[in-house]
Design brief:
The complex is a heterodimer of chains A (326) and B (283). Chain A has 326 residues and is of the alpha+beta class. Chain A has 2 domains: 136 residues, no CATH class; 135 residues, no CATH class. Helix content of chain A is 51%, strand content 8%. In chain A, the strands form 2 sheets. Chain A has a 4-stranded antiparallel beta sheet. Chain A has a two-stranded antiparallel ribbon with strand order 1-5. In chain A, helix 1 runs antiparallel to helix 2, helix 3 crosses helix 5 and helix 6 packs antiparallel against helix 7. Helices cover 41% and strands 18% of the residues of chain B. Chain B has 10 helices and 12 strands. In chain B, the strands form 3 sheets. Chain B has an 8-stranded parallel beta barrel, surrounded by 4 helices. Chain B has a two-stranded antiparallel sheet with strand order 5-6. Chain B has 283 residues and is an alpha/beta fold. The chains are: A alpha+beta (326), B alpha/beta (283).
Chain lengths: 326, 283
């Protein structure tokens, strides 16, 4: 048997979902007996059959990817409930096995998969999708690229009609239908408490979380998931703020981005300059802008780049685990 | 044999794996450690805390990269994105050599994230050696391959595991990361004499040694890296050092990780054997 053929056969068996009691299935995906598949490629020894030896790898595969996946999506687990989340995770990872050398990317296709497989979240579909988007944004913000931030003097020389501000690559912009940032922070806090608490305490917290999910009402929010001092934070934005940032990310020039964002705004014309100035002061202080070629060529600036400390609203610091296998 | 071309002629002592749970201790207490081994994949990212931590570690310590998903034995070509990121990291760490496993784990672009055992065939040895050469030529540093723990053997195998290892390293002209715990685990799972394995390895190619703990189940042993090193593994290590000489040694502890001092103390037990190897060389 050629190497590629053997590896395909073994990988297919290893990646076959386990039974509910976490053992290898007796029937392979192609309908053949798994015992026959195993004995064709793997030798038995004096203690283990071919099936049992293959099963060691089958179980290790699922234990590893399920635990890595669960670690990345505690918020979704809270939304769906533990049992449904576990079944959903198996279905997702069966449909979308890892295509990356790192476990970090296990959830890369979860949002699109969940949009097609609506039964898993049922009436909580929008809430579940919001939570997945937030948790994936958190992963991307945690280890996304950071470039040298734009300095006030860079802006001082820029022409706003031509100036194209570039957002730091690690910043993730989300428009959400539910305030899932609060829920996720609560879930994480409960997880941290769980490490030290009694069973009764944990049970009370679990009930509290379930209740929090059930009570969560739709409330559109705009969020920047960003990073400061290597910690990830969730910052709520006004809708106009969000629109400016999204337009800048899309490559619009500064003036055009601000104009389009404020076109339907309820902020009065008189108040707009102070709002815009405040936003840019904050974003600059947070280091959200980085240099681009156009900036270097620009001559003057009308944007007040600013001093003043960053205003961090919500700490979504992530406890990212190592992505590698033992 | 303190240094050879496979470890870039370095003379490293006893290292331990760099793990997140010890970051704070290392950065605040600055313990004296010969070197740290990092899991490359944990740092093949674009930015953020892991790279900040790594840069702080690099200011004070020597670092060697160890990979877990190059899959030299997979029939498919190396992943270009993986190689690109690995190359970037190699430049950052200045690792004297780069290790990964003699195993496979991906097929048709799908990853199992496991270290799956090789069929010990000449075809597999040829393809694996070709891939090792390709990675080495791309990264331009010595590449060493590590023997894995295994729980299955294939009907198609044409040789023993140590013969396969020798076949690959000769064809690739690469070094070996000899994991004596893995040899012990596999010897129990497949009923062979671990000393035959250690005695068969080309000593001049061994760039590094791994030691670790494991878990014993009723019918097999699992390589879990969650216990201290057991005496039979230390004895096997002693034999390896006797044959190979003073060699860079690393303790792996990846699960149920105790305090930094406990892990380091366990690693430093290797000094007993390394000291006697140094004495023998001196005599």
């Amino acid at each position: 048997m050629k190497l590629l053929s053997l590896q395909r056969r073994m990988a297919r068996a290893v990646m076959t979902p386990l039974t509910p009691s976490e053992h290898m299935r007796s029937v392979a995906p192609d309908g053949r007996s798994m015992r026959a598949v195993a004995s064709e490629i793997i030798k038995p020894n004096d203690r283990l059959t071919s099936f049992e030896r293959l099963e060691i790898y089958n179980r290790q595969y699922w234990f590893r990817i399920l635990s890595g996946f669960a670690e990345d999506f505690p918020g979704l687990r809270s939304v769906l409930g533990g049992s449904r989340f576990d079944r959903m995770a198996k279905a997702y990872l069966s449909d979308c096995p890892s295509q990356s050398f790192t476990l970090r990317n296990l959830g890369a296709r979860l949002e699109s998969w969940l949009r097609k497989n609506t039964a898993w979240a049922g009436t909580r579909q929008n809430l579940a999708l919001d939570m997945v988007r937030l948790e994936w944004a958190d992963i991307e913000a945690f280890d996304g690229a950071a470039e040298p931030p734009l300095k006030p003097e860079d802006l001082a020389r820029a022409n706003p009609a031509k100036l194209r501000l570039r957002l730091q690559p690690y910043i993730q912009l989300l428009d959400l239908r539910y305030p899932v940032d609060d829920l996720l922070l609560e879930v994480r806090k409960a997880e941290e408490d769980t490490d030290f608490a009694s069973n009764a305490f944990n049970e009370r917290h679990h009930r509290k979380r379930v209740s929090a999910v059930a009570k969560l009402k739709p409330q559109p929010i705009f969020l920047a998931v960003h990073r400061m001092d290597d910690s990830v934070y969730f910052r709520r934005l006004q809708s106009e703020e969000f629109a400016v940032l999204r337009a800048l990310r899309a490559g619009k020039a500064l003036n055009a981005a601000v104009e389009s964002a404020l076109k339907k705004s309820l902020i009065t014309v008189e108040e707009r300059p102070s709002h815009v100035q405040h936003w840019f002061q904050t974003w600059s202080a947070l280091g959200w802008f980085c240099r681009s070629e156009t900036n270097k060529e620009s001559k003057r600036n009308s944007v007040a780049a600013a001093s003043g400390g960053p205003q961090v609203t919500k700490n979504g610091q992530r406890r990212k685990s190592n992505s590698a296998v033992v | 044999m303190p240094a050879n071309r496979f470890n870039n002629f370095t003379d490293y002592g006893i290292g331990i794996g760099l793990r997140a749970t010890h970051y704070n201790h290392i950065l605040t207490r600055k313990p004296v450690v010969d070197w740290f081994e990092i899991i490359s994949e944990n740092f093949m990212i674009d930015g953020g805390r892991p790279l900040s931590i790594l840069d702080q570690i690099l200011e004070q310590y020597k670092v060697v990269q160890h990979g877990v998903s190059m899959y030299f034995g997979s029939a498919e070509r190396p992943n270009r994105e993986h190689l690109r990121r690995l190359r970037t990291l190699v430049k950052r760490t200045n690792t004297p050599w780069l290790s990964d496993h003699l195993c496979w784990g991906s097929v048709d672009g799908r990853y199992t994230h496991d270290l799956l055992p090789m069929p010990y065939t000449f075809e597999a040895a040829r393809l694996t050696a070709q891939k090792v050469r390709e990675v080495r030529d791309t990264l331009e540093i010595p590449v060493v391959v590590e023997n894995v723990s295994s729980y299955a053997e294939f009907h198609v195998s044409e040789m023993t595991e140590w013969e396969f290892l020798n076949e690959v390293v000769e064809r690739a002209d690469c070094g070996i990361l000899l994991d004596v715990n893995n040899i012990y685990v596999s010897s129990k799972n497949h009923n062979f004499d671990p000393y035959t394995y250690v005695n068969s390895v080309p000593a001049e190619r061994v760039a590094q040694i791994h030691i670790a703990g494991h878990s014993k189940f009723r019918k097999y042993i699992l390589d879990t890296h969650d216990h201290p090193v057991i005496d039979p593994v230390w004895k096997l290590y002693a034999r390896a050092i006797e044959r190979i000489g003073h060699t860079a040694t690393l303790l792996e502890w990846d699960d149920s990780i105790p305090s930094f001092d406990e892990v380091h103390d366990e690693a430093l037990k290797a000094n007993r054997f390394l000291a006697s190897a140094s004495l023998a060389t001196a005599v």
